[in-house]
Amino acid sequence: MIFGAGGAKVIAMSALRIDRHKAIVWARRYVPCEVAGTTVEFGGAALAYLWTGSFVVAALAGTIGASVGYYATAYTAALRWSYRSRRGSLPMRVLVANGLALRSVAIEFGPAEAVDSLVVRPLAFYVGPQLFGGLVLGWVAAKVFSDVVFYALAIGSYERFGALLARRPSIEKGQRHEPRPATTAA
């Protein structure tokens, strides 16, 4: 951090570099969700367009499909990680793990999803084909644009509120089992 004129904070260029380790962690966390979300997004948008011929209906179906595919995967992963970190009776372990998974998904993705699903993605999927002169190219451009906005917000939440999130346990070299993460119910 460098201080400029009048004490204003200016971020140094080195602070903008992405740490390789963080990029790997983000990829392991988000790629499975992205694959599932993209599959359902394009499948839903294509089916809706084939059935209705409407860009509006296709944009809405794609937005809903992206959310369903993405969050089913994200919630399942958070649930699995939270469940593994808990001990106790089965009913309480399942209940607490579900609560932790829900909290994790809401904190990490809530703000990003609100902006993405309510404004950015539907508008991009509607305008994209018109701007790029073709359905497929427009949807690909819309997806890329929407994802950049979404991940900027989601990664910001992940980095800021990481202590409240379910995380994939890391396997230390030489260990055969994953260590228990320090996830709390508070």
Structural key phrases:
72% helix; mainly alpha; transmembrane; disordered C terminus; transmembrane helix; 2% strand; 186 residues; two-stranded antiparallel sheet; elongated; membrane
Q: Kindly state the percentage of residues in helix.
A: over 70%
Strand segment count:
2
Strand order of the largest sheet: 1-2
Helix tally?
Answer: 4
> Which of globular, elongated, flat, extended, rod-shaped describes the shape?
elongated
Alpha-carbon Rg, integer: 20 Å
The figure for the number of domains is 1
List unreliable stretches of 5+ residues: 171-186
How much β-strand is present in the residues? under 5%
Separation, N- and C-terminal Cα atoms: 33 Å
Could you characterize the architecture of this molecule?
The protein has 186 residues and is mainly α. It has one domain (20-164). Helices cover 72% and strands 2% of the residues. The protein has helices spanning 20-52, 55-85, 90-132, 135-160, and strands at 2-3, 9-10. It has a two-stranded antiparallel sheet with strand order 1-2. Strand 1 (2-3) and strand 2 form a beta hairpin. Helix 1 (20-52) packs across helix 2 (55-85), helix 2 packs antiparallel against helix 3 and helix 3 (90-132) crosses helix 4. The two termini are 33 Å apart. Mean pLDDT is 83; it is low at 171-186.
